[in-house]
Design brief:
By secondary structure, the protein is mainly α. The protein is built from 16 helices and no strands.
Amino acid sequence: MTSKSHSPTGTHRAASLSWAIFVTSLGFVVVQLDVSIVNVALPAISSALHTGVGGMQWVVDMYTLAFAACLLSAGAIGDRIGARRGFVIGTAVFTLASMGCGFAPNLASLIAARAVQGIGAALLMPCSLALLNHACRDDAPARAKAVGLWTAAGGVALSAGPVIGGLLLHPFGWRSIFLVNLPIGVLAIWLALRRTEETDTQEKQQFDIAGLLLAVIALLAGTAAVIESGSRGWQSPVVWIGLAISVIGLVVFVVVESRQRAPMLPLKFFSDLSFNVATGVGLVVNFALYGTIFVLSLYFQHVRHESPIDAGLAFLPFMLAIIVANVVGGRLAASFGPRWPMTAGLAIGTIGFACLGHVGAQTGFVDLNWRLVLVSLGIGLAAPPMTAALLSRVPRAQSGVASGVLNTVRQAAGAIGVAVFGTLAASDIVGGMRAAFVTSAVLLLLIACLAAVGMRQAKTPRHS
């Protein structure tokens, strides 16, 4: 291992951490913004490019699929070339791909550009967490607070996406929702080069091509099967073949990774119960959250017949609540550890989703939003403790791979959530949405119980 930085102290260390939080948050902002900003533009994209619900699902999911499939490899690359270099390269790829989305002439080229966006996001995301972890050194309370602020920035972008999209759509058209990434990306690259330190790097080892290909096959086949089930039905041979390929690909992936000298996915991470719990929380939260944003966008514009601007503004209370909850969640984790803030947040989210199960076409704005606020408060409280707990369980030199594991699971779960919820709502938006919310409530309740029990072993960070 080679070291490329010196440990800052005192005022310099505080300033270095502040800049690291700001720069990495900019990266997280563009990643999360593109998850949600697209949803409010789906009807406009559908009309302009002549596609239906299936095509819209692909526009959303190709980004998250490419993101998820490449995250593990990207985390390992970041650990080997340095997190700052990986962050800059990933942000540059993402920014150029956003330009490609903005000028896409047809549906196929838009989906392809979305895939490239996902690849760029996959590299910058774990590298941003690795940069943040590096700036915190071994200060666990500082890490929890920093992750809380970083997560809050992502929460702002995720929740503000529909609002920004709605404001941009009317005067500038759907292409503007992608072009807005360009100035943010350029600023993030410039500040990263000027204000952050390069991390330690690991020895270069053979790249895990087999693991990458198997991960892509398993994720793409599984999500494609769920999306196609909406139009073909679950009895379709195409759907069952896709699911079978996904399962076989996943099994072979685990076997291959267990035999690799330098695996894309270090299976030893999963010998730690707290690591598994944190990863499980990320899976459930993203499955529910991404799917919810997708079906709510359909609900606001197709059931309530609201304009894109009004549909975006309908998410505003959700946005404000998740921002506050992320900051509070990080501070609670710093003071009391991750277990109880995480469990409490998941419990609140469970109540919120259960209440949303009664929403109908005529539900009033206030009546809808207090339920949505409960969901965002719960998820916002749980996310920072989840991330801080996972990072505390691995050596700092492997934080890129570890964050890659967490975010791979989260993005894959988000893509599947969009596919499943979109399929449920394909023929009956209100009925499918209710079923999706009840499913989310059950899953959050189960993972809350697991967090309450499983995070007991997270008191002492493991370093090796």
